[in-house]
Amino acid sequence: MIPIIKPDFGKEEEQTVNEIIKSGHITRGKWTLKFKEEFAKYLNIGFCHTVCSGTAALYIALKAIGIDNKEDKVIVPAMSFMATIDAVLLAGGTPIVVDINESYTMDTEQLIEAVEKYKPKAVIPVHLFGQTADMDKINEICKANNIIVLEDAAQAHGATYKGKKAGNLGDLAAFSFYASKNLAMGEGGAIVTNDYKIDEKISNWIEFGNHPALNLRITEFQAGIGYWQLKKLEDNNEKRRKIAEIYNKEFENLPGLILPKEYPDRKHVYHIYALRHPKRDEIVERLIENGVGARVYYEYTLDKLRNAECLDCEFAHLLTKEIFAIPIFPALKDKEIDFIVETVKKVVKEVS
Questions:
Q1: Residue 93 to residues 46, 69, 87, 240: CA-CA distances in angstroms?
Q2: pLDDT tens digit string along 77-122?
Q3: What CATH number does residue 302 fall under?
Q4: Containing domain of residue 105, as a range?
Q5: Which 3 state secondary structure label does DSSP give 165?
Q6: Per-residue pLDDT averaged across 325-345, rounded?
Q7: Given 63, 181, 201, 267, the catalytic residue
Q8: Cα separation of 153 and 80, whole Å?
């Protein structure tokens, strides 16, 4: 079975982990500092704080911008991992769900409608599957209405919009470094911003001092692994993009199959290679039977998952019946890519 995701660690990660074990300095050390500095430099952003997960990053980001009661409304897209809406609920705010468009990111026309109707305090555009949302339009809408833009960049390490990296496109951003991500530590997250006032509030939540705080640190092991994964990120993203090019060429004429699209001015880093087909469930079952680790992303929408207030999320609801993913991790060998291609072709033709 070719798995849907497989982290790729080398000698650098292994040597660093062994070095940390021998040093006895397993938390709050040089590797955590190095990773924070290098990640901020990579994004060309002023401030970076590491935390224990992407969910924690979203939660702290929301608390830092003042989300703490049900009057604080936050707009989120209908399709994302559940942490996007859960962080709003845990922070004490009220999530408002809007539909997505063909890019699988926030529908900006619905965003305009939701802003007028609900007067939100914040908007969370999710750069889903590795492609950024339409950030010019989202920022324009939010700036005109004094709304804070919090990017959920958990799936978009290295993705760009008009040359700027995801994470440096709004007021602040949250990242995840979960085992499946393009930049993987096993577990981990980060909050980044260029706003020193927001940075101070983030620090107050996670740095102990003359105020209550939370311990959400990563260990030196995670930071050391993350440091080397960051060094390999651009090369690994290019490998993902090359695999996506092969898939796009090979699958373009398969009946009923809708391929992912890279939009103008955006660089897709293919955290997920998302396909659509009306007979999705049968295709996924047969791919797995034939040794290809296909998976559904996602079989729920956030409005239905948490019974949240929403606008009409018709397109996202349709996707829950059609969308699925196939392996696209950088360590895939040529023969594995060939096998995936031939198996997808065979299965899609069989069910069509």
A1: 27, 5, 9, 36
A2: 999 999 999 999 999 999 999 999 999 999 999 999 999 999 999 9
A3: 3.90.1150.10
A4: 11-228
A5: strand
A6: 98
A7: 181
A8: 11
Residue where a domain terminates, one of 205, 228, 251: 228
Q: Is the pTM of this model over 0.70?
A: yes
249 catalytic, yes or no? no
Total tally of structural domains belonging to the chain = 2
Relative to beta strand 47-51, strand 189-193 is antiparallel
* Residue corresponding to tokens 């895939």: 332
Domain boundary among 213, 228, 243: 228
Residue 141, helix vs strand vs coil:
helix
Q: Comparing 24-28, 68-72, 209-213, 327-331, which segment has the lowest mean pLDDT?
A: 209-213
Amino acid, single-letter form, for residue 300: Y
> Do 79 and 132 lie in a common domain?
yes
Same domain, 173 and 29: yes
Four-residue CA torsion sign, 154, 158, 159, 165: positive
The tokens describing 95, both together, are: 């999530």
Length in residues, the chain: 352
d(Cα 193, Cα 61) in Å, to the nearest integer? 10
Give the tokens for residue 100: 């997505």
CA dist., res. 197 & res. 306, Å (int): 32
Question: Is residue 224 a contact partner of residue 13, using CB atoms and an 8 Å limit?
Answer: yes
Spatial contact of 295 and 1, defined as CB atoms under 8 Å apart: no
Q: How far is CA 236 from CA 191, 221, 339, in A?
A: 23, 21, 21
